[in-house]
Amino acid sequence: MAINNTLLTKALREAHAKYKSSPTAVRTGGVIAPLHRFCVEELLTRGFPETRLHPKRHENKGPKRVRLLGGYMPKEIDVCLTIPDSGPLLAISVKSQMSSIVKNTINRFEEYVGDATNLHTRFPMLVLGFMMLVPVGKETFAGGKPFDGLRRIAALLERSNARRVVTEPSGSYEVSSLLLVDFESTPPRLMPDYPEAKSSLRIESFFDKLADLYHQRNQFVKL
Questions:
Q1: pLDDT digits 0-9 by tens, 2-36
Q2: Which among 145, 183, 199, 220 is most buried, taking Cβ atoms within 10 Å?
Q3: Quick check: is 223 in a domain?
Q4: pLDDT tens-digit profile of 86-134?
Q5: Dmax of the chain from CA atoms?
Q6: 135, exposed or middle or buried, with CB in 10 Å at 0-12, 13-18, 19+?
Q7: Total domains present in the chain
Q8: Has residue 64 got a pLDDT over 80?
Q9: By the 8 A CB rule, do 154 and 199 touch?
Q10: CA-CA distance, 130 to 92, in Å (whole number)?
């Protein structure tokens, strides 16, 4: 199923406006809150009921995260499908690296792998998605070519991607995606040629993969 590019563009425009008005909104979650709502809309399109999803469609005043008790510590997750008798069954973590990308990449990925380990340790059946937003710039992409910093991010995402069965490493995500965005364009636009068409990190297949894995693991769950 195709993603809604109109909604994605709207989310990127709102994210950029929030970042320009207050760069510290990256730390508070304000920049990626529009992408939370985009994720919810894509899950609703694929048949997941709003009554089980967080945040709700109408929660548009700021990030509304779900607090989960992981295997090692509590963790707030951006988008989550929960069932009273089963706990979290599907979740999406959305992150951005808007500046100092090369300098902070390794530290940030240590955090991301730790988050997956924490959640999968307590909820091994959880279908966990990871979405990374990176801007076009001197550290990432110019002249139609990716720089080493962007290639490094993509390589790390590929290594922590595709946890298809529950016995695979808990520090991996079931599905990951990389959004390379040109914020100098009006409106902001997703770069069409990176990641490459054959990459597993393309946003076009992100939600379908999550939904397919969810249904494989939860054949008898009634939403």
A1: 999 999 999 999 998 888 876 665 655 678 999 99
A2: 183
A3: no
A4: 899 999 999 998 888 888 889 999 999 999 999 999 999 999 999 999 9
A5: 52
A6: buried
A7: 1
A8: no
A9: yes
A10: 6
CA separation for the pair 136, 180 (Å, rounded):
6
**C-alpha distances in Å from residue 82, one per residue of 37, 44, 77, 221:** 16, 14, 12, 11
Question: Which residues sit opposite 76 in a β-bridge?
Answer: 67
Q: What is the model's pLDDT at position 24? A: 60
Residue 9's contacts (CB-CB under 8 Å, 6 or more residues apart) are 187, 188, 189
The reply to whether 135 falls in a domain is yes
Domain of residue 185, residue span: 5-217
- The identity of residue 134, as a single letter, is V
In a domain, 222, yes or no: no
Specify the pTM: 0.93
* Spacing of C-alpha 91 from chain mean position: 9
